[in-house]
């Protein structure tokens, strides 16, 4: 019994570290990749490559699930994708939304410092909650509505701290280094892109969660479906947004070891989180997100000449507080009994929600 409890605690600590590092390092790496000197890679191609890596990784994992048998792998893919055309067609919706969302995140990372990006992107909690109420008819607790108000106030405080820069009261100073392609930093564009990404994250996540209800398909097979159907949308985005540059410079222009690392981090990191997140409760997820915000702020001070102000600190604190408040269930906390595990149905529903938040 003690061994089992110790093993469970170890998995929780592993989940905390993994979630924290994934949240913090990805944002910092995206910011650095978009502002470092030298040739700037096309973000649309990086999104496509991340989906390709995710697809390859998921195929390997399904191959292992099928007992390392290519025949079973082929049969499973045929049964899930080819023989269920309607289900596959439905997956096209979140696939397209995730592609647009990931492209918007690169735009946001190009124009917002890592700390502001990390705080602003927490608005996905608000959009997810709103779509959960509208689409899934889910009822929110009064504490959750209060948390959403705190979240909006906190993000607004962070953004207003930036707009006050010219009067000397800003949380951050305009960074002296331009974006990697030599263009000026446009905070309004970065904030708008982050808002768009939050909107799409909430819509795609809730839509996907609704699809998962009652579906007997493994998490890795779902990732194969998503990535496979995301590739055409990603290539179309490349052609529409960067067609001229692709023709002149090539698909892999600006790629080096760091860009390869960034692509792998974005692809594989999400899959790793999908594995460990089932061991994380709401409090632990709140700690992970809060630590990621703090790490992003501290790292930005040393890496990107980020200047922390009282207004930014208060705004970030409100966002962190809202994360914990949103995940707090007073009734569950009052009625919980030590040593009693949640029901199988509750665990299944939680896993469906976590899978829907894969990106």
Automatic annotation (TrEMBL):
InterPro entries: EmrE-like (IPR037185), Nuc_sug_transpt (IPR007271)
Keyword rRNA-binding (UniProt): no
Topological relation to the membrane, as annotated: Multi-pass membrane protein
KW Transmembrane (keyword) present: yes
GO CC terms: Golgi membrane
Keywords attached to this entry: Membrane, Sugar transport, Transmembrane, Transmembrane helix, Transport
Transmembrane segments: 40-64, 119-136, 143-161, 188-208, 228-252, 258-277, 284-304, 310-328
SUPFAM superfamilies the record matches: Multidrug resistance efflux transporter EmrE
Compartments it resides in: Membrane
One annotated GO molecular function: pyrimidine nucleotide-sugar transmembrane transporter activity
Record-linked Pfam families: Nuc_sug_transp (PF04142)
Sequence similarity: Belongs to the nucleotide-sugar transporter family. SLC35A subfamily.
This protein's name: UDP-N-acetylglucosamine transporter
Organism, as annotated: Anopheles melas
